[in-house]
């Protein structure tokens, strides 16, 4: 990453690091194919942090897994669209090329660190394995030194001792730091974080977010941050993509989105921001009604059955994503009327 790009937000005119366009993903369940992502598009520039938000089941994790080429096979499939990373189409990459890309340029941190760490290998062995793949010319002593330095970098006290312990000997916060260390060990250009802090207490969560910001400022990596928590979005993100039932309903610069949400779903989210002491998961429950089931999505707007402004037009015709300003898009027939 050139030093000039470190920690800066690239303008939208710059070639994006990642561009997802019209992505469609389907799962085959009991012999029938169900589309879970329908025309998802967004871009991320180097050094930028993009938040991906939306209610449980809207397709955030599936979007991340599709980008990483990690959809469960054979029943999960990208059926249309493109995923371009640094100008290269990922959909057509051979599995070994994709594997190398994941080890070198794109990393992911999962929600539950225990599932992503190997319980029978020490923390140090697992980190050294990442370095073995990323820097094959290093010898064992160099890999060990790099692993200890990385543990220190993510704020793990006494890294020499922690190097030799197993994941279950660490607290949740420390395990998550190990996961971050592993994800960062390959110095990725893009880090995808799928709710990496929801399992942690608020103080640890804040520390980890701070740490990620610091490391981003040092390396200039781009981050896609998936979360339910709009407080985290406000703290961390430059741009936000709001998803609803497998589609993007709004995307904007973070200030623009918080100040002038245009889609009624986003407006609902904004008015439901919890107080500090509330649980993040509670924040979306105040929007009445339920997301339609995947196998019976309506022809019109997918939010229409919960929308206070819906008309016959909304029930009949799906709104297209419209560019409202250079940094703001929304998919609502009435976005012009729905200013706040
Ligand atoms: N392996 C799978 N097989 C079948 N359907 C799946 C599979 N994984 C996800 N889905 C479906 O795809 C849809 C999107 O799921 P996804 O996990 O992406 O949601 P999410 O936005 O990450 O939700 P959450 O906030 O709860 O993590 C859901 O309806 C889910 O049931
Ligand atoms: Mg998820």
Keywords:
12 helices, disordered N terminus, Rossmann fold, binds adenosine-5'-triphosphate, four-stranded antiparallel sheet, alpha/beta, 340 residues, eight-stranded mixed sheet, binds magnesium ion
Q: Taking strands numbered 1, 2, ... along the chain, how are they ordered across the largest sheet? A: 6-7-8-3-9-10-12-11
CATH architecture of the largest domain: 3-Layer(aba) Sandwich
Instruction: Give the names of the bound compounds.
Output: adenosine-5'-triphosphate, magnesium ion
State the helical fraction: 25-40%
CATH superfamily of the largest domain: P-loop containing nucleotide triphosphate hydrolases
CATH topology of the largest domain: Rossmann fold
* Secondary-structure class: alpha/beta
- CATH class type of the largest domain: Alpha Beta
Shape: globular
Mean pLDDT: 87
What's the total count of β strands? 12
Strand content: 15-25%
Compressed to H and E, one letter per element, the order equals EEEHEEHEHHHHHEHEHEEHHHEE
Tally of domains: 2
Q: Total number of helical segments?
A: 12
Largest sheet: 8 strands, mixed
Low-pLDDT ranges: 1-13, 275-285
- State the end-to-end CA separation: 40 Å
- CA gyration radius, whole angstroms: 20 Å
